[in-house]
User: Which sequence fits this backbone?
């Protein structure tokens, strides 16, 4: 497709000058000519002119005066003036008033003239593109706003307490109900529980259920940052406050202004830092490092810890006044071993998410895999569960996900490392013979799963013949479904 040649209007009362300009431009432009301002107005009203090239000296009015009129009536046209040296001062004085793109001095050179007009044509194109983009943005703005609103609503729904996966009889139901009630009241909340139980997820759900949902939700892991750095992260600093402070930094408390700030592992902070944090909570203001005065902040504090803070207070490692400031409401998050009924739901959801992320078809976890998972105690809680599902999908390498790809500790449904193996035997019901048989059945089953139900390999590992293994499978009802 051949690009359209831009139209230029050349205005000069000298015939020879008009002819010379036309000969120079007619290969690259559609050239219209006028010998006076009156003729030029007629052309501008009739044709789509992109560039106006005007001589400064014309009968009745100057070039600057005419280009000022063009600016008012045909503002899209790019304006260029051409003149002799004696007119330079008058033109310079009128450049801003007339909005002149460029001016050329006589005698002009063909190469310079063409270069200037090509630049003017490109300027016109860019201006037109910008105008179209502005119109498009105005039309699209309501749609974009609605999309953003829909996306925010979807995020809120995905993190809301009702979206947290749990079974009908899960102890997490009571936790979520409590959070829904607490969200309505703007008080500090302390989430306690083991690492990996999902305290940050619950803190975000609390924020989204509150009146602050439209404002920022900011997080900081207090246990992962040294005190001095933690202070600058939370409170901010002024330029020059210390070596390396090359510019002002807004602290996380100020970033969370109007919203919520989640302070994870609050129990790991030092007593010295706890004093500074207490002042923030008491006074509602922070003082950036190096700042002459404090600044007000309004952020709801949600803290979390895997420590027993009451015991820490009794032993003098955590300030009592700070404890009562952050623990107006305390919510205890149960470990995964106390919500066994949630494990199948969580594991399947993690698997579906991983399959979707790699573009693979979803697979349903089989009963064997779920049985191993529900028998395990999960010291790493939900975080460990997700990593275990990720391991299975990775080792499956596109094939079926199997229990054999679980970690050995999960396959054996192991107890905590510090518990002896005989603790399992002691915890079984029945007499000694039935307990030993139950333990034997578990060992046989674990060996079969690890060898993907290859009876020859399992028998060899257990020191049994194939007939002996077959008898035990029949005795304990362990034939693969």
Assistant:
């Amino acid at each position: 497709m051949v690009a359209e040649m831009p139209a230029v209007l050349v205005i000069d009362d000298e015939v020879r000058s008009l002819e010379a300009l036309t000969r120079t431009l007619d290969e690259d432009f559609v050239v219209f000519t006028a010998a006076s301002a009156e003729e030029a107005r007629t052309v501008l009203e009739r044709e789509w002119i992109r560039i106006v090239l005007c001589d400064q000296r014309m009968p009745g009015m100057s070039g600057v005066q005419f280009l000022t009129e063009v600016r008012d009536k045909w503002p899209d046209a790019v304006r260029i003036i051409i003149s002799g040296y004696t007119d330079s001062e008058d033109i310079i004085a009128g450049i801003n008033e007339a909005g002149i793109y460029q001016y050329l001095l006589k005698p002009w050179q063909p190469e310079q003239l063409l270069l200037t007009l090509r630049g003017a044509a490109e300027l016109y194109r860019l201006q037109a593109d910008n105008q179209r983009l502005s119109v498009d943005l105005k039309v699209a703005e309501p749609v974009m706003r609605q999309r953003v609103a829909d996306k925010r609503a979807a995020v809120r729904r995905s993190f809301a307490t009702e979206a947290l996966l749990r079974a009908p009889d899960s102890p997490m139901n009571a936790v979520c109900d409590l959070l829904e009630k607490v969200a309505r009241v703007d008080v500090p909340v302390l989430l306690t529980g083991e690492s990996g139980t999902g305290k940050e997820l619950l803190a975000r759900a609390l924020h989204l259920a509150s009146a602050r949902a439209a404002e920022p939700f900011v997080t900081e892991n207090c246990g992962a940052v040294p005190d001095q750095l933690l202070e600058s992260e939370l409170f901010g600093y002024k330029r020059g406050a210390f070596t390396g402070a090359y510019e002002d930094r807004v602290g996380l408390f100020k970033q969370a202004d109007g919203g919520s700030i989640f302070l994870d592992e609050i129990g790991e902070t030092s007593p010295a830092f706890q004093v500074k944090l207490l002042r923030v909570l008491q006074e509602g203001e922070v003082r950036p490092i190096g700042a002459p005065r404090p600044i007000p902040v309004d952020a709801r504090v949600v803290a979390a810890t895997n420590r027993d803070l009451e015991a820490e207070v009794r032993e003098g490692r955590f300030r009592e006044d700070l404890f009562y400031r952050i623990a107006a409401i305390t919510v205890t998050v149960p470990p995964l071993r106390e919500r066994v009924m949630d494990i199948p739901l969580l594991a399947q959801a993690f698997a579906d998410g991983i399959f979707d992320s790699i573009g693979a078809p979803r697979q349903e976890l089989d009963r064997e895999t779920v049985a191993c998972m529900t028998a395990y105690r999960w010291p790493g809680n939900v975080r460990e569960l997700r990593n275990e599902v990720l391991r299975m999908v990775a080792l499956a390498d596109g094939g079926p996900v199997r229990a054999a790809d679980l970690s050995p500790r999960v396959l054996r449904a192991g107890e905590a490392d510090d518990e002896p193996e005989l603790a399992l035997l002691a915890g079984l019901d029945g007499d000694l013979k039935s307990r030993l048989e139950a333990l034997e059945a578990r060992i046989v089953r674990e060996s079969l799963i690890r060898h993907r139900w290859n009876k020859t390999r399992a028998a060899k590992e257990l020191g049994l013949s194939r007939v002996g293994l077959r008898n035990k499978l029949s005795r304990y009802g362990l034939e693969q479904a």
In short: The longest strand covers residues 78-83. The radius of gyration is 39 Å. The chain has three domains: 7-128, 161-334, 420-481. Residues 414-423 have pLDDT under 50 and may be disordered.
